[in-house]
Amino acid sequence: MKTRDTVIEVKDLVKKFGHFVANDHLTFHVYKGEILGFLGANGAGKTTAIKILIGLSKPTSGKVKVAGIDVNKNPEKVKRRIGYMSQRFSLYDDMTVKENFRFYGGVYGLSRKQIRERMRFYLKKLEMESYEDMLLRNIPLGWKQKLAFSVANIHSPDIIFLDEPTGGVDPITRRQFWEMIYEVSDSGTTVFVTTHYMDEAEYCERVCIMSEGKIEAMDTPEALKEEYNAKNMNEVFIKIARNVE
Amino acid sequence: MRTILYILQKEFIQIFRDKTILPVIFIMPIFQLLVLAYTATFEIKNIRFIVVDHDHSSESGKLSDKFSGSAFFTRIGQTDSYNQAIQAIKKNEADQILVIEPDFEKNLMKENHAQVQVVTNAINGSAASLMNAYAISIINNFNKEILIKKFPLHFKEMPIKLNSSFWYNPELNYITYMVPGILVLLVTIIGMFLSAMNVVKEKELGTIEQLNVTPIRKFEFIAGKLIPFWVIAMIDLLFGLLIARLWFGIIVVGNPFLLLFVAGVYLVLVLGLGLFVSTLTNTMQQSMFISWFFMVVFILMSGLFTPIESMPVWAQKLNMINPLAYFIKINRMIMLKGSGFIDIQRDFLILSLYAAGMVIFSTLRYRKTA
């Protein structure tokens, strides 16, 4: 464990919107291949942080390195190495499954053959082979989320960022979704995931709990439960929230 | 470059799958061209006039017959009551009244001068001045005939004879004049709105965020958004030219390829403008309003409906940034006058620089941040 490489390094990250401090001196790192859960109430600053990590937003101050690259200086270079799936559904509703795969694969510079192979691979895994030519708008939300996850993975990124990927999804699909997360993690991809669901926090290797723009705790779920003398992550979360108030 | 092809493929798929927008793109402009070409006219035909003849003489009859005989006037009544005629104007049943005084003939013969009164409904000022001009010219003709008849020795013929000939549009056909302009207008509206809405639509749906985390480069993005609408607008223009030819019988006097070439550059400008609006706004509603604002100002000042030469000087200066004004002018020069490249080169150069500037501007404005 001690010799693990880090793929994300954040130091003193501050993001202000006017007087409002969305991210208050965040410092943390993420190991290669790890599943890091980013937890926090609404407005805790999770999405703000993730947007800075993927180069969609500029930090007010601080250093952010993703895949060894300074995001602030070279956001476009970082973008080749990462995948991202937002809380808003982001595939094209008026295009078919195949067309979405082809578009994103093409944009990431994959060859036609690679795109076809990757698409077949994911559709087979999702048991959605017969949906290839179906418009996304005709596919149920949970399935769409799994497709979006696959598309975000099409270029085999080093790190995949998932911003509340399971919002509004039924428990069975959520379960399947986490199986997919484990699979990409096993293949060496680092997973950075934000969530509201505390049961999902248990699936993460380490969790980082944010509150009011600050990191309140960051450790493995087991260590946190012990530290806060809690039965589960839900209790940990509530205790931390109370401490802050 | 391969990235651009993938973006193009995606855009075309989305355009052709949208069953609401597709007819708007291809059928509306044709429909509008057909309708607007006939309706956007300042020609006044069938002026409804009433004669109030207090004289009932043969001369007064002759004068009112002159009006009835004109292609512009339709006599809708004859009355002795001025009030009744005024009522007709008030009810908008008549446009003009010709009042002939009692003893009109007598005065004309004995005193050598007589009076008539013309009353015109001037709710529409420009129409009224036209109607007035028509009436005066008929009365002048009538005058002339009397002079020649009464003083055959002095007035065999009027000393100065006017022979007008109208170049480039000899029959003063309004449609010939309007169609090229309307064509430009339609292509502009299609191009500007499609491009202004497109990027904003991705913002509203949230798909832009996903695009912004990909390594797509800014110029690839702008090119991928610009080219599809350019192609569509060019197809619309070709359609329009075909209709102008087959339906209205308007032949492009100049080189049609020169026209298409200039149109191509012009459309880059219009689409660049649309994309620029798109980068400034966050919702389709905002984008719609801003585009509309520019469009209305551009259209009304473009010289399509009113001649630029009669606008105040500041307005003429303002037209230096009106892309429509340039292209309507160039388009009319090529289509009606047969101008060559040399004649339009100054305006064309300005259009080209403007287009390049707009595309660069919107590329710079486009931020890959959300």
* Total of DSSP H or I helical runs spanning 4+ residues of chain A: 9
Compute the average pLDDT of chain A.
90
For the sheet with most strands of chain B, the description reads: 4 strands, mixed
CATH level-two architecture of chain A: 3-Layer(aba) Sandwich
Number of domains of chain A: 1
Question: Regions of chain B with pLDDT < 50 over 5+ consecutive residues?
Answer: none
Number of DSSP strands of chain A?
10
The CATH top-level class label of chain A: Alpha Beta
Beta-strand percentage range of chain B: 5-15%
Summarize model confidence as the mean pLDDT of chain B.
Answer: 87
* N/C terminus separation of chain A: 35 Å
Query: How are helices and strands ordered from N to C of chain A?
Result: EEEHEEHEHHHEHEHEEHH
Catalogue the unreliable spans of chain A: none
Q: Structural class from helices and strands of chain B?
A: alpha/beta
**What is the helix/strand order of chain B?**
HHHEHEHEHEHHHHHHHHH
Strand order of the largest sheet of chain B: 2-1-3-4
Task: State the fourth-level CATH superfamily of chain A.
Answer: P-loop containing nucleotide triphosphate hydrolases
In angstroms, what is the radius of gyration of chain A?
18 Å
- Beta percentage of chain A is 25-35%
Task: Offer a concise description of the structure.
The complex is a heterodimer of chains A (about 240) and B (about 375). Chain A is of the alpha/beta class and about 240 residues long.
Protein described:
The complex is a heterodimer of chains A (about 240) and B (about 375). The mean pLDDT of chain A is about 90. In chain A, helix 3 packs across helix 4 and helix 5 packs parallel to helix 6. Chain A is globular, with a radius of gyration of 18 Å. Chain A has a six-stranded mixed beta sheet, sandwiched between helices. With about 240 residues, chain A is α/β, with parallel strands linked by helices. Chain A has nine helices and ten strands. Chain B is α/β, with parallel strands linked by helices. Chain B has two domains: about 240 residues, no CATH class; about 100 residues, abc type-2 transporter like fold, CATH 3.40.1710. In chain B, strands 2-1-3-4 form a four-stranded mixed beta sheet, with helices on both faces. The longest helix of chain B is centred in the middle third of the chain and has 32 residues.
